[in-house]
Task: structure prediction
Amino acid sequence: MTDANPAKTFLITGASTGIGAATARAAAAAGYRVVLAARSADKLAALVEELGGADKALAVTCDVQDLGQQRAMVDAALATFKRIDAVLANAGLGSTAAGVEGGDPDNWREMILTNIYGVALTAKLCLPELRRTRGHILLLGSRAGRRIAKGSVYGATKWAVTGLGYNLTEELVGTGVRSTLIEPGMVDTPFFDNPVTGALAAEDIANAVMYAVSQPAHVDVSEILVRPVAR
Ligand SMILES: NC(=O)c1ccc[n+]([C@@H]2O[C@H](COP(=O)([O-])OP(=O)(O)OC[C@H]3O[C@@H](n4cnc5c(N)ncnc54)[C@H](OP(=O)(O)O)[C@@H]3O)[C@@H](O)[C@H]2O)c1
Result:
C-alpha cells in the first residue's frame, strides 16, 4: 500500500480490554489498520504486538474525558496512517453503587464525562476526517439505553448515548458518513468485577460492529440491539 492509497483505518476508544479489544482484533483481521486508544499503555502495547506491530496498529494513551488528549489521538492517527475510515466510540464504565439515593457522585461524574462527554468528543473530533473519507462512526450504547432500570445512573448515561446516536444520524444526512448505535445486553468483560454467566462474549459485539461497517456504501445500519439468549 502506498501513501497515495493507504489502507483503511479503524480508530477505537476503550481498546485496551473487552469489546474494544475484541473489535480491534476483528478489524485487523478484516484488513484495517487500527488505532487503539485507552489509558492503559501496557495493555495497548501488548495488543499492538499481537496484531502485527507498528505497521498494523498504533497505540495512543488517551483519557477520553480530555479534549486535548482526544485531539492528540486523532492527530496521531492521521500522522501515522493518513486516514480514518471507521470509529468506534466505545470507552465507558459502569456504576460502583446501585441507585440514585445510594449512588456515588464521584462515580457519576466519571460515567457522565466518559460515557457521554467522551463519546461526543470522539465523534466531534473524528467527523471532519470521516466526511473526507465518507466513513463510519459507531457509538457503543447499551440495552440499558433503551429500557427502564430502577435508579440506574449508568443507564441514564446510555440513554444519553442513544439520543446522541439518533441525533447524530440526522446531522449526518447528506454527508455520506454512516452512523451506527451498537446496543449490547450483558457482555462478559472486565466491565464486571467477576465473570458473568449467560452473557454475550466481547467477540459477539465485535461481530455486530463488523457487520455494520462491511455493508455496501448505500446501506446505513442505524442501530443494532444484541442480547444474550439467556437474558
Ligand atoms: N459489558 C457489558 O455488559 C456492556 C453492555 C453494554 C454496553 N457496554 C459498554 O461497552 C463499552 C465497553 O465496555 P466493556 O464491556 O468492553 O468493558 P471494559 O473491558 O471495562 O472496557 C472499557 C474500556 O474503556 C476504557 N476506558 C474507560 N475509561 C476511559 C477513559 N476515561 N479514557 C479512555 N478509555 C477509557 C478502558 O480502558 P482503560 O482503563 O485502559 O482506559 C477499557 O478499554 C462501554 O461503553 C460499556 O458501557 C458494556
